[in-house]
Amino acid sequence: MGHEVPTLRYDLFRFKIIFSHFFQSILKVRVSVVQLYSTATKYEALHSD
Fold first, then answer.
1. From which domain of life does this come (predicted)?
2. Using CA of residue 9, residue 11, residue 12, residue 14, what is the dihedral sign?
3. How much is the pLDDT for 23?
4. pLDDT of residue 17
5. Which of 43, 45, 46, 25 is nearest to 35 (CA)?
6. How far apart are alpha carbons 18 and 24 in whole angstroms?
7. pTM, 2 dp
8. Is 15 helix (H, G, I), strand (E, B) or coil?
9. What is the pLDDT of residues 1-49, one digit of tens each?
């Protein structure tokens, strides 16, 4: 029973690291998509008339 606690804590730590990396990459992708979308809408607004 005493052996399971450190491994569980380590798994949680590793999961936290993986999750933070995953979250940051999702954030970067989202930011780039938003920038692309805003530039596209600006372009359309400029060339609409």
1. Bacteria
2. positive
3. 96
4. 96
5. 43
6. 10
7. 0.52
8. helix
9. 556 667 888 899 999 999 999 999 999 999 999 999 999 998 888 877 6
Question: How far apart, in whole angstroms, are the C-alpha atoms of residue 8 and residue 1?
Answer: 11
- Residue by residue, what is the 3-state secondary structure of the chain? CCCHHHHHHHHHHHHHHHHHHHHHHHHHHHHHHHHHHHHHHHHHHHCCC
pLDDT value, residue 28: 96
d(CA 33, CA 22): 16
Rounded Cα gap, residues 22 and 40, in angstroms: 27
Alpha carbons 7 and 27: distance in angstroms, whole number: 30
